[in-house]
């Protein structure tokens, strides 16, 4: 898991005109923070980089015992029932996962930092943290910024931090990480096997930051400045919509080759954009999405205000995504085998009131659904309808399922079981 950004004399003026963005609180859950930290401590031993098989097994057993204890406090007597009850504490499990992470202890805020990417040695991104930041403190929003392409080359991360997002409220309200983009502009929208593509660099930076800095997974925002950067941000977002709370495009037009299909749960804000952004907004409205904002004279101040009102919906009840060629193959709680040439989108809806999940998938052989208590009631039979064919079954989460799904989870959304279904057309 992974991290993020300055000051100048002009800041005195910005303080007079810049109101703080409204504070969106992280999910807190039902349990006292002390209990969440206790769960997190055990999870940390399971996830620890140096944990051996014996360490992991002990942590697995201890975590199960802790969940059993929590479930029995709810009045459940049987171990399995107690586990199910505790695994229904979705927000608490997310907080526990936040406390489980070993954040980099020597990081301090107040001035920009240069951090080396673990995945790409000798390549650094720029990181700004609030002056009050302390590892393990309150989780921060993250602005994951892609710098503009200017004078035939990408602006360096440190240059970007010197020139942009310098407003005091932004610097003191969020972590900012600036991505080191490839020198070749033609590689910015690619996910290349040799790790040199722009999409890879964005996601490597994202992963490095959330592994080092305490970030609120429900408040991570892609930010592109200039048309090339906005386009690259949109290529990232359409592949990984479930990772981000929103996308901001500043002083550049939207991508002409990205449809809004995968943005149903991913709001967008375009400032000083062009006709492509207007077309994107119109097509989004045709799909029933009302989450695209255009502001012709928009500034960083406006973007910050928008951030303050925008958080990720971690467990959306409706998911629509167009599979790529072959990626994306997943969005939120729905995954299909990576398959090239699919023309129609995947559409999935969960209705917790009737405990029904309906999925419409194109020509693939399987679909995998990831579950937590925000999507279904584990205490009742679940109706699963795939391409019109209905089945009813009991879905029971387990400690092992939850631990196995940690790579798919984050501190804003923890899955506790999954099911894979064969698809008949």
Structural summary, described in words:
With 425 residues, the chain is α/β, with parallel strands linked by helices. The protein folds into 3 domains: 11-24 and 104-308, Rossmann fold (3-Layer(aba) Sandwich), CATH 3.40.50; 33-88, no CATH class; 318-422, no CATH class. Helices cover 31% and strands 21% of the residues. The chain contains 12 helices and 19 strands. It has helices at residues 11-17, 33-47, 53-73, 79-87, 90-100, 157-163, 168-173, 198-212, 227-239, 275-286, 300-308, 399-404; strands at 113-116, 124-128, 140-146, 149-150, 153-154, 175-178, 215-225, 246-250, 268-271, 292-295, 318-321, 330-331, 334-335, 346-351, 356-360, 366-371, 382-386, 389-393, 417-422. The chain has an 8-stranded mixed sheet with strand order 1-2-6-3-7-8-9-10, with helices on both faces. The chain has a 5-stranded mixed sheet with strand order 11-14-15-17-18, with no helix packed on it. A 4-stranded antiparallel sheet has the order 12-13-16-19, with no helix packed on it. The longest helix has 21 residues, at 53-73. Residues 1-20 have low confidence and may be disordered.
